[in-house]
Amino acid sequence: MKLHKVTSQSIKEAALIIQNGGLVAFPTETVYGLGADALNPLAVARVFEVKERPNFDPLIVHISSLADIERLCLKIDKMARTLMKHFWPGPLTLVLPKSSLVPDIVTAGLPTVAVRMPSHPVASELIKAAGTPVAAPSANLFSRLSPTTAKHVKEQLGDKIDLILDGGRSPIGVESTVILLASGKAHLLRPGGLSLEDIENVIGAVKIQIPKSLSPLSPGQLPRHYSPRTPIRFLPPGKIEFEKGKKVGLLAFTPLKAKMPCEVVEILSPEGDIVEAAANLFPCLHRLDKAGLDIIYAESVPKIGLGRAIMDRLYKAVGDSRSE
Questions:
Q1: CA 284 to CA 40: how far, in whole Å?
Q2: Domain coverage including residue 179
Q3: Which terminus of the chain is more exposed, N or C, with fewer CB under 10 A?
Q4: Considering the domain boundaries, does residue 9 fall inside one?
Q5: Bigger pLDDT: 224 or 185?
Q6: DSSP string across 85-116
Q7: Which long-range contacts (CB under 8 A, 24 or more apart) does 77-80 make?
């Protein structure tokens, strides 16, 4: 699969593919998405097939205009409109009651739909050119590391999809924050590229407890996700003794204060900047996963700002059911 540099022509070509029921990988400000016409059930079914994604895990629908939200959703309350006004376009997904226009395959049969308006210019232009809402989970194999470059997409999906738009590295580096709005209250379903603090500054307290459901209400809620193929664990506190004969990699938040017996060390942020750390999370994990290691140890980061999203991804990569 050839990577296509972003030009007006390549965006037109990508839009035509989506209109004809094909699949296009494209950059967003969070991670690369795998896009299909959200109103075409057969195209959406192919997304699940290519990603090897279970059909009970709903998709996020991406839009380029607020006019689309009126077509896709019912009961758009004042809180939803306030969040849209402050944070769209941007890395915020809202889960709202769906209209009959949205195919059940997109929502895994749920009465709600997850909707986002991306701020990345390529994503916005592509959705406009396609003339349809675009269902777009991350452009990777299900449960594997998220892609923040076109190369990451190619390595995982290869020739399974119709076109990859290469728009450079995704600047935020973690998926969108997902908020469920129900009965006048906001529930955090997935921490992401918009901090909880920023949201609460606008609408007040957000509930962290997720409403009980037999199925995920949004992507990223399953207990194991975002995982490298190499086994990964959290770095234990205190004196560390790694197993002899094992090739060990370390994902560190900041530069090490003491030397450790590691084959490879990846540092999320030399200055301890949590935003930089989020942007570097998946690129660092991709490099560690390709280093021929027996195990990766990950250091915890402070759960402030985007640190909450980083820790959510690490918990799920490890297979730890905690997200808070």
A1: 36
A2: 3-203
A3: C
A4: yes
A5: 185
A6: HHH-SSSEEEEEEBPTTS-HHHHTT-SEEEEE
A7: 77/181, 77/184, 79/181, 79/184, 79/186, 79/203, 80/181
Cα angle 310-314-318, degrees, rounded to a multiple of 5 = 175
Residue with tokens 């296509």: 4
Give the integer Cα–Cα distance in Å for 195 and 179: 11
Same domain, 105 and 173: yes
Structural domains of the chain, count: 2
The three-class DSSP label of residue 248 is strand
Residues in the chain: 324
User: Cβ contacts of residue 217 below 8 Å, gap of 6+?
Assistant: 58, 95, 110, 112, 180, 189, 210, 211
Query: Own/partner pairs for 317-324, CB < 8 Å, 24+ apart?
Result: 317/145, 317/224, 317/225, 317/226, 317/227, 317/228, 317/232, 317/285, 318/232, 318/233, 318/234, 319/223, 319/224, 319/227, 320/223, 320/234, 321/223, 323/191, 324/208
Are 126 and 11 in contact by the 8 Å Cβ rule? The answer is: yes
> How far is the CA of 181 from the CAs of 33, 96, 170, 173, 178, in angstroms?
24, 6, 27, 25, 10
- Residue 282 CA to residue 233 CA, distance in Å, equals 16
- Give 290's DSSP letter: T
Which of 21-35, 187-201, 231-245, 261-275 is least confident? 231-245
DSSP one-letter code for 207: B
pLDDT digits (tens, 9 = 90+) for 277-301: 999 999 999 999 999 999 999 999 9
Measured on CA atoms in the order 230, 231, 235, 238, is the torsion positive or negative? negative
Cβ-Cβ contacts under 8 Å for 240 (sequence gap 6 or more): 260, 297
CATH number where 23 lies = 3.90.870.10
Same domain, 171 and 285: no
* pLDDT band at 119; cut points 50, 70, 90: very high
Kindly report the CATH number assigned to the domain that includes residue 298.
3.40.50.11030
The pair of structure tokens assigned to 49 is 């097939």
